[in-house]
UniProtKB/TrEMBL annotation:
Keywords, comma-separated and alphabetical: Signal
Leader sequence residues: 1-30
BP term (GO), one: carbohydrate catabolic process
Domain DUF5916: 272-351
Keyword Signal: yes
Keyword Hydrolase applies: no
Name under which the protein is recorded: Uncharacterized protein
Highest taxon of source: Bacteria
Length: 790
């Protein structure tokens, strides 16, 4: 049975009228939590960060007790005692924690802590603080420390509902275990924060937090958290004081030097190596003009990846793979550019020579602008069933600008513009967005985006390079890639289109419901973002119910599901799906979820006789079951398993098959300083005439943290794919394909910007023309950078 989407204008009008009509007048609630407050004294001298709390300053600091367990217990008394102290100087915040554990005197290993990499401490015992420096429930800094002094920092963004640990600040910690538990000492330089320096006395949102992982991970806090309020940042306590903070023109210079020797060769036996040596100096500049205005610049930046990305299998998939941003310049105050849609994904800027960024917050107004060149020009070519990466061998200029006005505690309005331009190509984008949260339970978001794009006249020829197709107008669609038709039809000048997004969600303690509608025009492009699907209208509706059993080994049970339906802009069905799932949290820090999906969707066409709907073809009915489980049975071992089984479309041949997907993982903390992470991904697809392919990917990483600052990492990612070429109707792929990537890396981190790396990596390949794995690439590299704080 096919479903036709109702007229979108009528549907959205009814939906919006119903949602808003149900809202009652509700007074401002953001930042209204008065159940916890303290005044931070300003002292003349700071403390020495050594883990010993013996300075007299701590006797004059403000004191906070973490009295409540907020999860899994609901605002019950904390099972262990934790005391936090805080004071300020004119330049830094100083915080200490005394985390008691009655079992630590009996068993020295009861406290869970490892010498991990920065931002890789989740699952350890942790203490930390959350700070909303404007007390407006928009953004909050989070700082956590484990009993070895390893740091984790992140930014919680109310607009997107996400926490990003990509941001890295320079701050100072020390920790040590004691007979009663452990204690931590922290210094947070005020240059880390954006805040209103015009105020004679500050009022910041604050929460002191401890994670206490034993049979379950218990979250302890200074105050209670209302599960009937979906706004977490609205429930922070308040910290006043911080008197006499004077604006400073904080300046940070980070020069860097990168040595690199890269060698490549053809896989044929006896092929010669082609080597290239490079020495690249660079400079990053970070100028805090005021505590709320930051100017960042980079000259000849080093944007090299010193750690391999997690392995991904690119088989029987039609959309481009997503890789997260890890580069420091782009991550600094990244949240200022965020909207509900991913319209800025800076990893699309591949190889820049320079970059400049200005971010500022004045009263209720937030501004951000960034400009960068790129010696390469890469962008997504999206469709309604697929996307691919196009590349132009020419320099481009990239620009992004964002403005947000927080009209009230309930209402925020914003706009974003992006531009990507080279000699024969451009993509311009303008967006407006809204977030309205009239009650603690109701949130409405909306966004409208318009884009204008022009492709080079013969971009499709570049897209076809490397294929068997001769790049002329008579190529078959299957020869040059699924979106070759899209490229050809956009050669006649500028084209434009729009995207709009609407979402309403109602969240309470025990249940939630939501609905979302999105529409992306056929000619819409977001080339500085990551919008991989266009020519689609999609409606989603769903909800769930949650139980919190008391006195049981299961602490949370959730039953949920959703229904969605998608059409292209011509009104033809692309997909409709119904999914139901159940989730459990319980003892041994376990999480288990499983569900079933019933789906009707289209595959893709492989002939050029019908081009009406970008490769759409017959409908397939799929039913699939899936499950995921994670458990920590001992202090040293974490196990997880992701699996699914059921129908799946064979996109290469436009037919239905049966797929088995299994993805186990093991994290073994051999000691507090040595860990082994192993994951394996297995996929097999069977069609009527036999096994189409079997794919395996193994990712192995051995980490030795000599101390908090020094580490050695050895990693290998191995991919092995076997296919039956006789079952492929439109192409002749290799029967066997193997790849092996290895890396050995030594690192020294004084702080996130002051680092020394020394490493080696190589790549080996095998296909039908190569008898064995053959090394085709190897790299030796060294990086040195140092952050000067002026």
């Amino acid at each position: 049975m096919k479903f036709k989407l109702p007229l979108s204008t009528q549907l959205l009008s009814l939906l919006l009228a119903s949602a808003i009509g149900s809202f009652s007048a509700f007074s401002a609630y953001a930042g209204s939590s008065h159940q916890f407050s303290l005044s931070i004294p300003t002292l003349e001298d700071g403390a020495t960060i050594d883990g010993h709390l013996d300075e007299v300053q701590w006797q004059n600091a403000a004191i906070a007790e973490l009295k409540y367990e907020t999860s899994p217990g609901e605002n019950i008394l904390a099972p262990v005692g934790t005391t936090a102290k805080i004071f300020s100087t004119g330049e830094s915040l100083f915080i200490s924690f005394v985390a008691n554990d009655p079992d630590s005197s009996v068993d020295d290993n009861i406290i869970r802590a490892n010498l991990n990499d920065r931002d890789d401490t989740w699952g350890d015992d942790l203490v930390g603080i959350k700070l909303d420096t404007f007390n407006d429930s928009r953004l909050a800094y989070q700082f956590f420390v484990n009993p070895y002094g390893v740091q984790t920092d992140s930014i919680e963004n109310e607009l997107t509902g996400n926490e990003s640990n990509a941001w890295d600040g320079i701050w100072y910690t020390s920790a040590r275990k004691t007979e009663q538990g452990y204690q931590v000492e922290i210094e947070l330089p005020l240059r880390l924060f954006n805040f209103d320096s015009q105020l004679s006395q500050q009022t910041w949102g604050v929460e002191f937090i401890r994670f206490y992982p034993r049979d379950q991970v218990r979250r302890l806090s200074t105050h209670q958290i209302d599960r009937n309020n979906s706004c977490q940042l609205c429930q922070l306590g308040t910290a006043t004081g911080l008197e006499g903070l004077e604006p400073s023109q904080d300046l940070q210079l980070t020069p860097s030097l990168v040595f690199n020797r890269n060698s490549q060769r053809d896989p044929e036996p006896g092929a010669d190596w082609d080597s290239d040596n490079s020495i690249e100096p660079g400079l990053d500049i970070r100028w805090g003009i005021t505590p709320s205005t930051l100017l960042s610049a980079t000259i000849n930046p080093d944007f090299s990846q010193v750690e391999a990305d997690a392995g991904q299998l690119d088989i029987n998939s039609t959309f481009a793979l997503f890789y997260p941003e890890k580069r420091a310049f782009f991550l600094d105050n990244k949240d200022y550019f965020d909207t509900q849609l991913q319209l800025l994904h800076t990893r699309n800027i591949v190889s820049p020579d320079y970059g400049l960024k200005l971010t500022s917050k004045v009263d209720n107004h937030t501004f951000a602008v960034m400009v960068s060149n790129d010696t390469k020009t890469n962008f997504l070519v999206p469709g309604n069933l697929s996307s691919d990466i196009a590349s132009l061998d020419e320099e481009s200029v990239n620009l992004a600008g964002r403005y947000r006005a927080d009209i009230s505690n309930e209402l925020s309005l914003g706009t974003l513009i992006t531009a990507k331009r080279s000699d024969q190509y451009h993509n311009y984008l303008a967006s407006g967005d809204l977030k309205y949260q009239p009650t603690p339970q109701d949130t409405f978001t909306a966004q409208y985006v318009f884009s204008s794009t022009q492709y080079p006249d013969e971009l499709y020829k570049e897209f076809c390079s490397g294929s068997d197709c001769q790049p002329d107008i008579n190529c078959e669609l299957s020869d040059c890639g699924v979106n070759e038709r899209v490229l050809r039809t956009k050669q006649e000048g500028e084209f434009s289109d729009s995207f709009y997004h609407l979402k309403y969600i109602h969240e309470r303690r025990n249940w939630y419901a939501f609905t979302q509608y999105e529409s992306a025009g056929d000619d819409f492009r977001a080339d500085l973002g990551f919008i991989s699907r266009v020519d689609v209208n999609k409606l989603v509706a769903g909800g769930g119910y949650t139980w919190y059993p008391q006195g049981s080994s299961i602490s949370r049970v959730e039953l949920g599901g959703d229904w969605d339906i998608s059409h292209n802009q011509a009104g033809e069905l692309l997909e409709q799906e119904l999914e139901a799932r159940v989730e459990f949290e319980g003892s041994m820090q376990s999480y288990t979820a499983f569900g079933v999906v019933a789906r009707e969707r289209v595959g893709r066409r492989h002939d050029s006789s019908q081009l009406a709907i970008d490769g759409n073809t017959q409908l397939f009915n799929e039913t699939k079951g899936w499950g995921y489980s994670k458990i920590i049975p001992t202090r040293a071992l974490t196990l997880d398993l992701d699996l699914s089984y059921g129908d799946n479309i064979d996109f290469a041949n436009d037919q239905l098959g049966t797929e088995l997907f299994v993805n186990p993982g093991v994290e073994w903390n051999i000691s507090d300083s040595v860990s082994l992470d192993v994951s394996h991904l297995y996929r097999a697809l069977d069609v009527d005439d036999g096994r189409l392919f079997t794919a395996n990917l193994s990712d192995i990483r051995l980490n030795w943290h000599i101390n908090v600052r020094n580490f050695i990492r050895i990693s290998s990612i191995y991919t092995h794919i076997e296919r039956d070429p006789s079952l492929y109707l439109y192409s002749s792929p290799d029967a066997k394909e193997q790849q092996l990537g290895n890396e050995v890396l030594y690192g020294y981190k004084l702080n996130p910007q002051s680092v020394f790396y020394l490493g080696y990596s190589d790549g080996l390949n095998r296909d039908d023309e190569i008898d064995a794995l053959t090394r085709t690439e190897q790299t030796y590299f060294m990086k040195l950078s140092y952050a000067w704080l002026l």
